Write the structure tokens for this entry.
Amino acid sequence: MTGRILFIAHLLCAFLITTDTWAEAFQFTCTVDRDSVTVGDRIVLTLELRRPLDDTSAVAPELSLPEVFQILHSPRATSTREDESQLIAQSIELAAFKTGLFTLPAAVVQLIRSPGDTLRLSADPIDIVVGSVKPVDIDDIMDIRPPVDIDARIPWWGWVGLCLLVVILLVVVWLLFLRKKKTRPEPPLPPTDWFEEIRRIGRSGLLEAGDLLTYYTSLSETLRRFLEARTGVEAMERTTIEVGDDLSTAGIGSGRVIAIQGFLSEADLVKFAKFLPGADKAREDLNRVLHTMGEVDTDLRPIVEPQPFDEEIRPS
């Protein structure tokens, strides 16, 4: 029994001696670049651990900061070799936004070899004085002053510039008003003389050139536009039969409707079936369109019947 107690005591002594020897091989410090700052100034807190090169312990730092301090930047720790030791350093940037005397608690680092085999190292607490922004000739700590009301006044030259700007704006508005007042509205365009448009087609020289396709296309399109202007019937994009049906309900006599459909059908033959009438027939068709247009106007309101187109058209 006595031998067992001596053996246990021997193991405890060996563990304590080994632990003390292990702890002496490490050095842990915690420092700040300055211990007296003003509100919002940057404080650099540096943690440094020196350990043997062959040490493979896991490092677990512990740092608890008062709420008055805020971490601005915390980069990763760096590791460098110095002689026969390894230096692990980490810099943490802090700032305080309240005046007074504050203490940074002791920073702690744990070195873990294996579960149950841990070494705990701690540094000394650090006192930091945080003062308010103060003039150069005042040395004591000052509290942050409350906001000061400032009576904002516009200088005289500001009022002068504002008045000039208003005057310039009024002058520009007045000039624009006068310019708009002097601008006269453009007179309305005179109504289209559809009969003259038909006569112009006859004088265009299309028959002399033998261009019957363009000749009949121009006659039919002008007649359709005339019908739209006089009756309101949509004639440009409708078929010949649809135009005739709409004209019958627009107050145009049945004889006129038959004449209009007949000419539009013949024009379609020239445009789409390549039918080529003679020059005499083409001239007769022009007078026929003029006569039909006059009868349409007669159905709608009494007008003087236009003279037939009597210029001589000779085939080319």
